[in-house]
Amino acid sequence: MRRTLALVACVAAGLATWAAAQDEPGTLFTTYGTVNESVTITGASQLQNGEAVVSLPAWFEDRCKTEGRHVLLTCKGGWSPLWSSAVSNGQFTVQTNGGGNSTQVFWWQVTARLK
Length: 115
What we know:
By secondary structure, this protein is mainly β. It has one domain (4-113): Immunoglobulin-like (Sandwich), CATH 2.60.40. It is 4% helix and 55% strand. The protein is built from 1 helix and 9 strands.
């Protein structure tokens, strides 16, 4: 179930940004923005048993190139070694190892070029 709580948009001088707060499983908050033919999507999620699958908006695969996608991760409220898979089919997986917090909360950011 997807429920959009708020939507804000602004377009000026080649810059377009919009944000939507959502309560989707695995996503605490997500924002979207575009600048000069690239898109940045940010959000927060939490590991469960050392892993989290982050699903991106349905339009992501249709509108973004597959090459040059970047995933950045930042721990919140602590530190754990985190790494992610490549973005594929509109999602990516974040994991930690046995020395990490298996329920670590983290922020994520995906940047890609528009087609």
